[in-house]
Design brief:
By secondary structure, the chain is an alpha/beta fold. It folds into 2 domains: 95 residues, Winged helix-like DNA-binding domain superfamily/Winged helix DNA-binding domain (Arc Repressor Mutant, subunit A, Orthogonal Bundle); 242 residues, Rossmann fold (3-Layer(aba) Sandwich), CATH 3.40.50. 49% of the residues lie in helices and 14% in strands. The strands form 2 sheets. The protein has a 7-stranded mixed beta sheet, sandwiched between helices. Strands 1-2 form a two-stranded antiparallel ribbon. The N and C termini lie far apart (58 Å). 37% of the residues are buried. The mean pLDDT is 94.
Length: 355
């Protein structure tokens, strides 16, 4: 394209967009630092503070803290007035308190792992093969756990009650499997709430299973055990009352085989709960999502990589599991009833699927 053909307004708009992404990268890095150094926690609920006070509360160098505070104020994440900085109650909820569903800080713990993953992506593009989760190490497994923690409350308080008859079964004593359980956050919460039920976590990531076993021991829940399906597969004995997936089906290399195994493991009146990204039926629909750029970015770094980690993998990707595609996979596996529940979640859809 020659200079004469270039649209100056479009070029200016693009430059502004690119500077915005550069700014976002650096702000994200500072958010990660604030979390790692305990700066948000030092400010939470403390009102207005000088940089000296923040540094003292966090046990850090004032000059470095002052630069961090200035950057956070410029990003609009904290306020500044008259030589004092403040983290609002809303900011504290999102950045310092991981006990609420509004917490966002866990997502920024991906940053070190994503940097390392990006270095290896050119080889994936050349060969067509992705990487298994364990290739990303402990940092990724721990980040996955933190990022998914706020959704546990939605599972226990909304998703489980929305399933026909499942709460009563869990209260009485049911057998439950979580496929792709990761570091075990969902299962630990459920096992503590339903002590008469038996819970089983399945994951091919030994790193995640190691974290899960340690967390389970610390939580003191005896009705929970873990399995690696590579050597301890889901039994085909129709003994499970509930089998669930939490943002996992789109990561699977062979989802048809896994859903088939679930169908054989479920009782005739059992339930499969699939929690997955609320994807549209087309790229045009997905591009309307305000978080589409983030989701496609996560996909090429993590989810698509996992789904292509085996030759012939499905390659679904983060936004690839549309309702119709999931329904087709479920029907091919022998399920006959498919319902999207009315659980409200800004990212995920919740599907009740039954034999």
């Amino acid at each position: 394209m020659t200079t004469a053909e270039m649209n100056p307004a479009a070029a200016e708009e693009l430059a502004g967009r690119l500077f915005g992404y550069m700014s976002g990268m650096l702000v994200s890095s500072s958010i990660y630092l604030g979390d790692q150094l305990g700066l948000y926690r030092a400010m939470a609920g403390a009102g207005r503070l000088t940089s000296e006070q923040v540094a003292s509360r966090a046990g850090l160098s004032e000059r470095w803290v002052r630069e961090w505070l200035s950057q956070q104020a410029a990003a609009g994440l904290i306020s500044y007035q008259g030589g004092q900085f403040e983290l609002s109650p809303e900011g504290a909820m999102a950045l310092a308190d991981e006990s609420t569903g509004a917490s966002m800080i866990g997502f920024f713990s991906f940053l070190p792992a994503l940097s390392a993953i990006t270095e290896g992506l050119p080889e994936c593009f050349r060969t067509g093969l992705g990487r298994k989760y364990d290739a990303h190490g402990h940092v990724m497994a721990a980040a996955m756990q933190r990022a998914s923690a706020p959704s546990v409350g939605v599972l226990t308080d909304a998703a489980i009650p929305a399933l026909d008859g499942v709460s009563a079964k869990l209260e009485a004593g049911a057998k439950v499997a979580d496929i792709g359980c990761g570091a075990g956050g969902r299962l630990i919460a459920l096992a503590a709430r339903y002590p008469k039920s038996q819970f089983h976590g399945y994951d091919i990531s030994e790193v995640a299973l190691g974290i899960a076993r340690e967390a389970t021991a610390a939580a003191g829940v005896p009705n929970l055990s873990y399995h690696n399906p590579d050597n301890d597969p889901l039994p085909a004995d129709a003994s499970f009352d509930l089998v669930m997936f939490g943002d996992v089906v789109h990561d699977l290399a062979f989802p048809d085989a896994v859903l088939g195994a679930v169908r054989r493991a479920l009782k005739p009146d059992g339930t499969m709960l699939v929690i997955d990204i609320a994807a549209g039926e087309s790229l045009e629909e997905n591009l309307q999502s305000p978080i589409a750029a983030m989701m496609f970015g996560m996909s090429q770094a993590i989810c698509l990589s996992s789904s292509l980690s085996e030759p012939g993998g499905a390659g679904i990707g983060t936004l690839g599991l549309s309702p119709s595609r999931l329904r087709g996979l479920a029907e091919n596996a022998g399920f006959t009833r498919f319902r999207r529940t009315d659980v409200v979640d800004p990212i995920n859809a919740y599907y009740e699927i039954r034999p």
